[in-house]
């Protein structure tokens, strides 16, 4: 199955430059449980909630802080965080070659496949075969999605795999664990022999298809059985609220219809018709004023204004 190229860059060591494309090598296969309200079967979402007040807050009121003490935080702005991002070079810079068995499994985090591009097949194959023959892997640094990683470039069959590693301070030391020291336990030769014999009897070839996620299989089998029996619930997704621009469009349409009715166009709607009632009252008052005789102050003079108290 073809995979999407995450980014295109190059493997670089010494004067060697190998153009490659980075592909994801894994996929999540867990059970995706959605939250539902059992009373109404409505979907339940996540909200940004102030933990002290319990009230929801909007995105613009959220800042990022790093805890430096008990209740003490240093707040960093978006610009300060972006300035600290490592420079993206699209280069897998190999800094050292080490024996493959020197890297503990606890440092392995996430694998990616590398495939040659732009006529880089020959030098790609040369590096792959050299690593196979020497039993070495390349330690490199790479930036993926604004985050810098330590990585091990290692051969895996016909492919080169870039396995992201955890940094040294991310792996906890075993010093704090109560572990038996080598040679501290009195193990008899017979016990060693039986242990080795048991290991030999249980040994076999590596085949990942021999191992399955039993929990996932049982849950999905239960889901399929209930679906086949018609035991399902209908969940209606809530309608998205209309954007603010929709209100402007409706208001513009109302204004256009109102202007059209003044020009002798189509009859106004019920909403616009009610707005003309004050206009009728004003016209009636004006007509009544013309019918009255002129006051003593004269028809053309205005009544004196009252002085402010």
Characterization of the model:
- The chain has 309 residues and is an alpha+beta fold.
- The protein has a domain at 1-26 and 77-170: Ku70, Chain: A, Domain 2, CATH 2.40.290.
- The chain contains seven helices and nine strands, in the order ββββαββαβββααααα.
- It has helices at 78-84, 121-134, 189-201, 214-228, 244-262, 270-273, 277-291, and strands at residues 5-13, 16-24, 64-69, 72-76, 91-99, 108-116, 136-144, 147-156, 159-165.
- The strands form two sheets. It has a seven-stranded mixed barrel with strand order 1-2-6-9-8-7-5. Strands 3-4 form a two-stranded antiparallel ribbon.
- It is extended.
- The chain starts with a strand and ends in an 18-residue tail after the last helix.
The residue-averaged pLDDT reads: 75
Q: What distance lies between the first and last C-alpha atoms, to the nearest angstrom?
A: 90 Å
Approximate strand percentage: 15-25%
- In the CATH scheme, what's the topology name of the domain at 1-26 and 77-170? Ku70, Chain: A, Domain 2
Briefly, what is this?
The chain is built from seven helices and nine strands; from the N terminus they run ββββαββαβββααααα. The chain has 309 residues and is of the alpha+beta class.
Question: What is the fold's blueprint, element by element?
Answer:
Layout: E1 5-13, E2 16-24, E3 64-69, E4 72-76, H1 78-84, E5 91-99, E6 108-116, H2 121-134, E7 136-144, E8 147-156, E9 159-165, H3 189-201, H4 214-228, H5 244-262, H6 270-273, H7 277-291
Parallel strand pairs: 1-5
Antiparallel strand pairs: 1-2, 2-6, 3-4, 5-7, 6-9, 7-8, 8-9
């Amino acid at each position: 199955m073809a995979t999407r190229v995450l980014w295109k860059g190059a493997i670089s060591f010494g004067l060697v430059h190998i153009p490659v494309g980075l592909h994801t090598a894994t996929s999540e296969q867990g059970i995706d449980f959605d939250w539902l309200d059992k009373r109404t079967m409505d979907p339940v979402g996540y909200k940004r909630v102030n933990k002290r007040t319990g009230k929801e807050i909007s995105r613009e009121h959220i800042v990022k802080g790093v805890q430096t003490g008990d209740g003490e935080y240093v707040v960093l702005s978006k610009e300060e965080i972006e300035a600290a991002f490592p420079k993206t070079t699209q280069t897998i810079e190999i800094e050292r070659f080490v024996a493959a068995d020197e890297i503990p499994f606890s440092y392995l985090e996430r694998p990616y496949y590398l495939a040659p591009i732009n006529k880089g097949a020959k030098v790609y194959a040369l590096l792959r075969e050299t690593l196979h023959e020497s039993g070495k892997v390349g330690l490199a640094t790479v930036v993926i999605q604004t985050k810098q990683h330590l990585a091990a470039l290692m051969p895996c069959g016909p492919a080169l795999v870039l396995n992201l590693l955890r940094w040294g301070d991310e792996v906890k030391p075993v010093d704090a664990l109560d572990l038996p020291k080598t040679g501290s336990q009195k193990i008899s030769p017979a016990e060693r022999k039986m242990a080795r014999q048991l290991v030999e009897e249980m040994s076999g070839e590596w085949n990942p298809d021999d191992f399955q996620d039993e929990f996932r299989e049982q849950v999905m089998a239960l889901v399929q059985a209930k679906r086949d029996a018609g035991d399902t619930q209908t969940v209606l997704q809530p309608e998205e609220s209309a954007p603010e621009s929709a209100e402007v469009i409706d208001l513009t349409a109302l204004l256009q219809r109102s202007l059209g009715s003044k020009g002798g166009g189509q009859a106004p709607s019920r909403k616009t018709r009610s707005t003309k009632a004050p206009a009728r009252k004003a016209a009636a008052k004006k007509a009544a004023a013309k019918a009255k005789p002129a006051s003593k102050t004269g028809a053309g003079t205005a009544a004196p204004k009252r002085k402010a108290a």
